[in-house]
Each structure stands twice: as C-alpha cells, then as structure tokens.
Amino acid sequence: MTSDELPKNNSTTRRDVDDQGANRVSIDTLCDLLANAHRRHILLYLSERTKTTVSREQLLDHLAEVSDGSHEDTHRRLAIQLQHVHLPKLVNHGMLEYDTATNRISYIADSRVKKMLDVVREVFSTKEK
C-alpha cells in the first residue's frame, strides 16, 4: 500500500498534530494540497456547507459539476481519483475524515486552511469580475 492509499478498515482518521494539538502541516504542504483544483473544490465545497459531512456521491456529483467533460466519463474518472489520490492526501494531513463503511466524508475545520480558502475564494471572485 502506498502512503496515499486509504487503509481497508472501516474508518480512516489521521490527524497530523503536535503534542499541543496544533496542526503540523507545513505551509509548503498546504500550498501543495491546495494547488490541485479538485482538492480546492473539495475543501471549498465542504467548508461552505452548514453540514460539514457529505456522502461520497454528493461530493462526486459536485466535482463532476465543476469539472469539464461528459458527466458519465468525468464522474467515473473523478471517483477513481477521489478514492486513490484526493481523499487519502486530505485525510493524511488532517483536513478530512472519511468513513469507508458509510462513505461519509467530514471536513475538519482548521484556521490556517480557512485563511487559505478565503484567499482562494477572493482569487476566484476577482477572476470572475
């Protein structure tokens, strides 16, 4: 199993925290995670919802909606990428929890991630003007 694959157990939760509970994700790692459009959309989508837990299908539908390509092809490709790339990275760095038994994904609020997402939102809103 590579470091980016999800373990086969029912619940996957890993937080990169120090002894005081503070997130240890470096700014370089945070920028790397947010450099990918799909991961940005995942975090933006989850952070903007009043309920921070969604089903895997809800998240896939959202990603397909904001992506290019036919829905069926995009949905299948995104399902593979979500399972094997994006969810493992975000879970491993403590930004999400993913329960493989229920296919429920939960956003873990973090002040540094929130600030970075605010910048991303500002860039998107400026680009649209």
Explained architecture:
By secondary structure, the chain is α+β, with helices and mostly antiparallel strands. A hairpin with a 4-residue loop joins strand 3 (96-99) and strand 4. It contains five helices and four strands; from the N terminus they run βααβααββα. Helix 2 crosses helix 5 (111-128). The chain has a four-stranded antiparallel sheet. The model is unreliable at 1-21 (pLDDT under 50).
Task: Tag the structure with descriptive keywords.
disordered N terminus; 4 strands; alpha+beta; globular; four-stranded antiparallel β-sheet; 10% strand; 129 residues
**Strand residue percentage:** 5-15%
Give the strand tally: 4
**Strand-and-helix sequence, N→C?**
EHHEHHEEH
Quick check: average pLDDT?
Answer: 81
Indicate the percent of residues in helices. Answer: 55-70%
Query: Distance between the terminal alpha carbons, to the nearest Å?
Result: 45 Å
Shape: globular
Unreliably modeled segments: 1-21
What is the fold's blueprint, element by element?
Layout lengths: L10 E2 L14 H9 L1 H12 L4 E3 H11 L4 H22 L3 E4 L4 E4 L3 H18 L1
Antiparallel strand pairs: 1-3, 2-4, 3-4
Summarize the structure.
With 129 residues, this protein is of the alpha+beta class. It has five helices and four strands; from the N terminus they run E-H-H-E-H-H-E-E-H.
